[in-house]
Amino acid sequence: MLRNKKLVGLFCFMIIALVLTACGGGNNAANNEGNKNDTGTAEGTPAPAATEGPKYNFRLAETHPADYPTTKGDMKFAELVKEKSDGRITIDVFPSAQLGEEKSAIEQVQLGAIEFTRVSSSPLGEFNKEFGVFSLPYIFDNDEHVWKFLLGDAGMKLLDSLESSRLKGLGYYTSGARSFYSEKPLKTLEDLKGLKIRVQENQLNIAMIDALGASATPMPYGEVYSALQTGVIDGAENNYPSYFSSKHYEVAKNYILDGHQRVPEVLMMSKTAWDKLSPEDQAIIKEAALESITFQREEWAKYEKVSEEQVRAAGATITEVTDVTPWQEAVKPIIDANREQYKTILDAIDAAR
Ligand code: GTR
User: Fold this and answer.
1) CA–CA gap between residue 258 and residue 241 (Å, rounded)
2) Which of 121, 179, 242, 299 to mutate to test ligand 1, by most ligand atoms within 8 A of the CB atom?
3) Residue ranges per structural domain of the chain
4) pLDDT at position 205 over 70
5) Which terminus of the chain, N or C, has less C-beta within 10 A?
6) What does CATH list as the number for 56-175+263-302?
7) Which has the closest alpha carbon to 275: 83, 89, 131, 112?
8) Is the torsion defined by CA of 294, 300, 301, 303 positive or negative?
9) pLDDT at position 45, please?
């Protein structure tokens, strides 16, 4: 009798759990074109009985909020995929790290638990060493130089190299230049000395910060605001849009524009999910990703301007670096130590100059 009661209890629990799981999926997805369809499953397994081909409903993990240029790029990508597949393939974009911070999102995409993500090359470099190259400081002159490399053969080959890490690279998005900020005054390279600086989770960043005389604290993006506020760290580094959208400028008002890194964003898919698609559907996904790049870059340009205006209006102290040579000299040992490992890519980057 007692055993029967236990069984009934277990059965009821399983039903409730199933109902909750079914209701939970997609609830927090950004309001984009790729809304959940009726027949696809959250895991992206083919649904039966579609006339022109299988239906899919996929998820995309994004760390930034809905109005950020990378998220807008993701949504454009989802919209294009839906359009090109006549509504058969839908992608729900989950902004604001709802599906986890970048490192965890990459792991989940590798496992196929999430089908897509957009992440920065810097944390990606811990999963695929080649991507570490973007964490080497001052290797690009400007945005034009970055894009000449990314859209050239070497950039595309690099994207393809993700397959060895169980990831399918689809395209790059832009992310401007990263610079340092702190609550303490930052007017010169000297001011960085001794500060505790948060960096993206990549070993090369630690070496870079050491070389600049500060000490590095790697941590996920979502934890930086409170770490700055509570004084766990003195500063961090990022581009204008992230400095603004994360509100870090409220708790670290001094921004020095040294532009040490230009770290491209990467849109990618789980290799497991990719391999299950027909060549036609793979072509749709790839094409949509490449087409969304132009849109993302336009959104970036607008948002970068607005971010600068907003942080200036909020009273941030912005210092331009007129001569970046001392900064470059300070970090040169890092480039020298890694030149051999990244020789082919660094040569291609130089050739794109
Ligand atoms: C931003 C980037 C994010 C995240 C963040 C960070 O520029 O777009 O994906 O990597 O930097 O500093 O963690």
Assistant:
1) 16
2) 242
3) 56-175+263-302, 178-261+319-351
4) yes
5) N
6) 3.40.190.170
7) 112
8) positive
9) 54
Tokens of 343: 């020789």
Q: Give the H or E element holding residue 313.
A: helix 279-313
- pTM, whole model, 2 decimals? 0.88
At 280, the pLDDT band (50, 70, 90 cuts) reads: very high
pLDDT surpasses 70 at 23: no
C-alpha to C-alpha distance for 327 and 35, rounded to whole angstroms: 47
Locate 322 and state its tokens.
């007129």
Residue minimizing CA distance to atom 9 of ligand 1:
120
Whether 27 shows a pLDDT value over 80: the answer reads no
Phi first, then psi: give them for residue 40, nearest 5 degrees. Answer: -75, 160
Tell me how far apart the alpha carbons of residues 130 and 159 are, in angstroms, rounded to a whole number.
10
Pair of tokens at residue 266: 């990467």
Atom 8 of ligand 1: nearest residue by CA position: 120
Pocket-testing residue among 94, 122, 303, ligand 1, by greatest number of atoms within 8 A of Cβ: 122
Q: Give the rounded percent of residues in the chain with a pLDDT score beyond 70.
A: 86
The burial of 263, by beta-carbon neighbours within 10 Å (0-12 exposed, 13-18 middle, 19 or more buried), is given as: buried
Dihedral sign from CA coordinates of 146, 151, 157, 160: positive
Residue 184, CA atoms < 13 Å, CB-side half-sphere: 15
CATH topology match: 56-175+263-302 vs 178-261+319-351: yes
Q: What percent of the chain has pLDDT over 90?
A: 85
Residue corresponding to tokens 């080959």 = 157
